[in-house]
Amino acid sequence: VPRFYKKREENRGLAPGSLVFIGEKKTEALRVRLFEYDDQTLAEETLHEVGRVRGLTDTDTIKWINVDGLHDTEAIREIGEEFGLHPLLLEDVLNTGQRPKLEEFEDTLFVVVKMLRYDEAAEMIIAEQLSIVVGPSFVLTFQEQPGDVFEPVRERLRNRKGRIRASGSDYLAYALLDSVVDNYIYIIGRIGEEVEELEGEVLESVDPELIAEIGRLKREMSFLRKAVRPAREAILKLSKLDSDLIQDNTSPFLKDLLDISSQAAEAIETYREMLSDELNIYNSAMSHRMNDIMKVLTIFAAIFIPLTFIAGIYGTNFEYLPELHYRYGYFVLWGVMIGVAAAMLYFFKKKGWF
Amino acid sequence: VPRFYKKREENRGLAPGSLVFIGEKKTEALRVRLFEYDDQTLAEETLHEVGRVRGLTDTDTIKWINVDGLHDTEAIREIGEEFGLHPLLLEDVLNTGQRPKLEEFEDTLFVVVKMLRYDEAAEMIIAEQLSIVVGPSFVLTFQEQPGDVFEPVRERLRNRKGRIRASGSDYLAYALLDSVVDNYIYIIGRIGEEVEELEGEVLESVDPELIAEIGRLKREMSFLRKAVRPAREAILKLSKLDSDLIQDNTSPFLKDLLDISSQAAEAIETYREMLSDELNIYNSAMSHRMNDIMKVLTIFAAIFIPLTFIAGIYGTNFEYLPELHYRYGYFVLWGVMIGVAAAMLYFFKKKGWF
Amino acid sequence: VPRFYKKREENRGLAPGSLVFIGEKKTEALRVRLFEYDDQTLAEETLHEVGRVRGLTDTDTIKWINVDGLHDTEAIREIGEEFGLHPLLLEDVLNTGQRPKLEEFEDTLFVVVKMLRYDEAAEMIIAEQLSIVVGPSFVLTFQEQPGDVFEPVRERLRNRKGRIRASGSDYLAYALLDSVVDNYIYIIGRIGEEVEELEGEVLESVDPELIAEIGRLKREMSFLRKAVRPAREAILKLSKLDSDLIQDNTSPFLKDLLDISSQAAEAIETYREMLSDELNIYNSAMSHRMNDIMKVLTIFAAIFIPLTFIAGIYGTNFEYLPELHYRYGYFVLWGVMIGVAAAMLYFFKKKGWF
Amino acid sequence: VPRFYKKREENRGLAPGSLVFIGEKKTEALRVRLFEYDDQTLAEETLHEVGRVRGLTDTDTIKWINVDGLHDTEAIREIGEEFGLHPLLLEDVLNTGQRPKLEEFEDTLFVVVKMLRYDEAAEMIIAEQLSIVVGPSFVLTFQEQPGDVFEPVRERLRNRKGRIRASGSDYLAYALLDSVVDNYIYIIGRIGEEVEELEGEVLESVDPELIAEIGRLKREMSFLRKAVRPAREAILKLSKLDSDLIQDNTSPFLKDLLDISSQAAEAIETYREMLSDELNIYNSAMSHRMNDIMKVLTIFAAIFIPLTFIAGIYGTNFEYLPELHYRYGYFVLWGVMIGVAAAMLYFFKKKGWF
Amino acid sequence: VPRFYKKREENRGLAPGSLVFIGEKKTEALRVRLFEYDDQTLAEETLHEVGRVRGLTDTDTIKWINVDGLHDTEAIREIGEEFGLHPLLLEDVLNTGQRPKLEEFEDTLFVVVKMLRYDEAAEMIIAEQLSIVVGPSFVLTFQEQPGDVFEPVRERLRNRKGRIRASGSDYLAYALLDSVVDNYIYIIGRIGEEVEELEGEVLESVDPELIAEIGRLKREMSFLRKAVRPAREAILKLSKLDSDLIQDNTSPFLKDLLDISSQAAEAIETYREMLSDELNIYNSAMSHRMNDIMKVLTIFAAIFIPLTFIAGIYGTNFEYLPELHYRYGYFVLWGVMIGVAAAMLYFFKKKGWF
């Protein structure tokens, strides 16, 4: 399965705004979780029927509706109608290959980001598209799979920790994005550690696995960059947005979030550069070893091949070969050989080969 | 035939605005297809005479005139006159080596893009220039060869699916561009799959075909980029255009289109980087194998060349060579040889060569 | 002679505005060609005296004065005075190492570009500086050598083809620039063909000439870029210029010219990238061949060196060497040798070396 | 420990604005140093209780409160409350993995930079986060470890040197930042010297340590860049800031500081390029040596292997081998061998191998 | 001594605006040369006392005061006071490691550039900092060493050549900068010639000196860029400056100067690219030669090692070795050997190795 970009075979040629889900088809019902709260009250509920979202927009309390699963396009459409969402927005929610972005609709903001989680057991990154719709008194979040990074936000809602219960939907959306970006930082740090560990190894190791490892980490970083860079752009746009939906006292929090995502984007670039440097240094070290190997070969060959030749001469069976009959011929032979070998060694020594 | 840029020998030095077709000359008539529609009615017709386009501009219905073939410059001029097109515009329609662009004329918009189709049978990309002229109540599309990516748009027109029949010429133009960009994404995905598949192979394979493959994919990506990047620019300009021709409710669709083409441009860059990384890793892996080969050679040479030399010594025919006459000379020889070989092996072991 | 940038030794330290010609000194008279025309009349003349330009500014007809040769600085100064040109402008005309640029003076526009021609016979590019001065009713063009790319413009003037005779000096200047840029495209295409042809060769060829060829093409592209990129900037500036000298209906033509020069600049970048890729692929292919060569060597050496050693053992002349006296010693020897060789082959096979 | 980016495991999922210190936990009290001064008076004091900062904001004198240690989050909160600092600001003070930045709060400016010191004894760079809060009549500086680069500023305060005592809090903040940036320049210079020293060595040395050294210096430069580049951005923002806190006559000093930090950022880029060039040249030099080694091997092998073969021929024990019985066979053999060797040498000479 | 960036050890921690000279300390008096002129009069004088500058600001004539030597900080301060210069300006004059820049003070402009001269005898570049202060009726220039590039300007002043005597201080400053930039172009051309000469050599030469040469030229270009790029920025700023000090008719000259410095900056980039290409091509050519060397080795080894082995077989002393006793054994041996050799040659031929 291509990991980087999908072909979008399914919705080539469809009318824009057509609701088509491009992921795995399933039959189970969507899981919809509702948090309804204001400073004083909090209701937490799992809705078993999408129809239950009706009428929610009428109250002043903040509603967070978290939808897990996108395969039931009919249910998604129903939610969309209830909250007055633009067809293109809904299409983007279902099309999980979106580039992260911020879009402003008439009375809603629409943010798409990649939600990354690090599965500590499997030692892999789990990525999926998170769509956030922010309205005056509600926040909708859509994702394909159950499992998210929002547990700390839920805890803060339940425990009335921080300013979240006293703030509006914009702060809730910020808190969710903050959780997402915190996980970017964490994952970049995890992979970055592996990058930094490689540094010590590239000079010594002769393990070809190292090249594979560098390649793998480069791809991980490309993958992360694909999630982080446009998310940073979206957050930048959000922090500069002049919209009624964003209250004044949320602004410093968005700027803080922008700082963190800038840092994430920068960290990825730094690690990518480090990986390139590591590959270069690995190659240099390998060339160096190659030189060493060739020196050993050349020294052995250059010393013993001439000697073997000399011995070969006196191994010929010529009838008339005067040296063979000298009393000390054999010893002279050794002398000559040692002389030749010493001369060769001196030559290589002078060339600085050892 | 140069694939990337044409020399434009034919129209070097012609007066600007001269209508010269630079492609293959043919004699058959152009194929002109007309869709005339409003929310209630739809007429689909193939015009056998260019003269039939006369008077079409007078009605309020939306007209989509799709011209296949550019070799009949006289007919093109006739259409241009009927719709009041600028001579430079017509020149660009005929000159199929245009860089994708958006141009604003007095009461028309002119968009040039490359229309790419993937021929599944031949496994190749078919590219040609598509010129779109958008007027208040008409859309003209010009292309050199029959065959396009607009069948889904035609289906939607026929079936009154989506908002297309109820919208103006700007939405039709958008729908056509959307089809074009959808095919970009599809083709990038196809080629991207090949890029991603190579990843696993570069470390193991010793097949020189792999280098050729990387080279080929790089060129494909360069070719795609040449089509996609300026198309993205044109769409960006279109989405920011302040023109009477673009209605307010078409705007979100154009922004959506811009997102998709940004994603396409980004995907190309990512794949290009991946290909560069793959070549680097292939080279590293090859150096690594080279080191291995040289180690094998050196170990064999360094062990057996000295041994052969020693054997050579005792193969000489010196009359007086004392060792030959010792009772256990031969066995001592073996002992010495095994000792030398063991010493060498120890030396290489210590150097970490195996 | 340095081809890329001149040292400007001659005019180091001169007063700005001093007229010094830095090219080859000659004694022959300048060749001045005059086209004087309006929609109805056309006079074409070769002036044998520079003094003849006097009084030309007084009429309403469009005058195109084309000066071949810059060595007679006195004559150039005379022309400059007649048309009221700024001393710095004249200095730039004579200093043929200018960077292409557009400058706005009080009532003239000054454009400097490189005029490139492809000499089909010599298969080389001929480059020289072209200075264009545009006034309300005149265009002056200065160049060092006879021979230019303007013959098609002259033809159009003579034949009243296109709108050139009915337009002003701005359109004439555009037409001249258009001819220049058309030749850029043509030359880039010619060299680009060579670049594209190399693509197929880099993988197979072992000819070191290929590296030289890639190097040469890279330099050609650098040279072209040095001409095209600043020319594009100048044309961009020209197309955005708010000047009385540029009439409204010339604007679309300038935009078209900008498109073509953008395309030229882009083509150069694409070809430069292709050349880099080709060098990389050539290097990879060469490494690959190296690996092949080393494998052959290592296989031969690793098989036959041990065998030769074994044969050497039994070539020794030890008095007591039991194996020599066995009845089947020789055949056992062959058996052992074949066994060793087979084992080695199996080892290399398993390593995937052939 | 990852040196480049921290994972921020501790505060993943916390409410924004939560005060969590991510460094080493300690129990000792914070060290708070107070300078209170105006043009006439100066009081220098070490506060043993954080509570002593109360009421300091009421006077018109300039107060510089320097806090060493961040582990006592309660004390930090107390200071924050006294000076009316935003919770996000305090969170950033404690989170020492911040990206350098400038933030504007209602009546304070908040600057975060990395304070780098070169420990001459240990030959290493000591880095820590410095947070500067600038108010109308106070400057707060926070850092984790004791030891800073501000001694010269303190001296100038004590000795009334320069304009510092007569200026406001903005000038004090500038003076502190100036000290920080001065140390950037100094450290870049130190490491840069090592980079420049390597230049002479890369061509001659065969020491693999050199690769390690280049790798190490590249990482140092990446590390410095991570501190300097965003600091430069912050200073740029500061120098362009339109704030009541910055007095007019401090402006030239900030511009000067910007110049110096631009120079620092540029120096880092130059040194990084130099390191890349050095690695390239080292690799080229190594390839060159490899060629030399292979030439020696090939010359020896190509001369002596054929000779040994010839000798081997006449070492065979064929009963009928005519040459062996010629009177001068042995001498002819030598003649042939010398001829072969001379021919080989001539061949290699002609190839330019020595 | 580090050539690229100085550590600034001496003034780390000093109060900003402190006058500290960081160069070589000397005791001799500064050399101050004064040109006082207007259109009619010219006085040229060497001042032996700094005090003589007093009162110079009162007259309307243009004063050019050129100070050689910066070691006497007291004298510099005196000059500064007389002309009302800002302490930071004076600090920058003395600190000769400044980045080239333009600064605007109340009634003066301050330009810092590197003045480069090519010493033809020593074949080296002499670089030093030139500080130019432009006031309404004076220009101050400060440099550390005697010797400059201004002799042509002085000549023009003495001979009333060009418009310099009739113009103001702004034109004088321009003329000085023009001299500086002219020398940039000249020096870049000189070094560029060496770069272009290398082009022909990289393919053929095997001299390792070539790598050293490429490295040296790259560093020269880095050094030049460090001077030229910020100088270009300063000139750009100057040409766009809206200041009373710059008269309208000086503007075209500044634009011209900007063009020349842009060309200088561009030339440096082109030469840097050419050097990188040259190194790449040198490396490719070296790989190519390596392949050739290895082919020779492999062909020799693969042909003669098996033959030697065969000869070795028949050199064994087995009692029972039937082939030795055949009448034509020896000739059959030769036949087999020639066959093997021919087969090998055919094999290598087919592989395209020669």
- The mean pLDDT of chain A is 88
Structural class by sheet pairing and helices of chain A: alpha+beta
Question: What order do the helices and strands of chain A follow?
Answer: EEEHHEEEEHHHHH
Oligomer: homopentamer
With helices defined by DSSP (H or I, 4 residues minimum), what is the helix count of chain A? 7
Strand order of the largest sheet of chain A: 2-1-3-7-6-5-4
For the terminal residues of chain A, how far apart are their CA atoms?
52 Å
Fraction of helical residues of chain A: 40-55%
Shape of chain A: rod-shaped
Biggest sheet details of chain A: 7 strands, mixed
Strand content of chain A: 5-15%
Q: How many extended strands of chain A?
A: 7
> What is the CA-based Rg of chain A, rounded?
34 Å
Unreliable segments of chain A (pLDDT under 50, ≥5 consecutive)? none
Query: Biggest interface, which chains?
Result: D-E, 74 and 67 residues
What brief labels describe this structure?
about 50% helix, about 350 residues, rod-shaped, 7-stranded mixed sheet, alpha+beta, homopentamer
What does this protein structure show overall?
Five copies of one chain form a homopentamer. By secondary structure, the first copy, chain A, is an alpha+beta fold. Chain A is 51% helix and 15% strand. The first copy, chain A, has helices at residues 73-83, 87-94, 151-159, 169-204, 209-239, 251-313, 329-350, and strands spanning 31-37, 42-47, 62-68, 101-104, 109-119, 124-134, 138-143. In chain A, a hairpin with a 4-residue loop joins β4 (101-104) and β5. In chain A, α4 (169-204) runs antiparallel to α5. Chains in contact: A-B, A-D, B-C, C-E, D-E. Chains D and E meet through α3, α4 and α6 of D and α5, α6 and α7 of E.
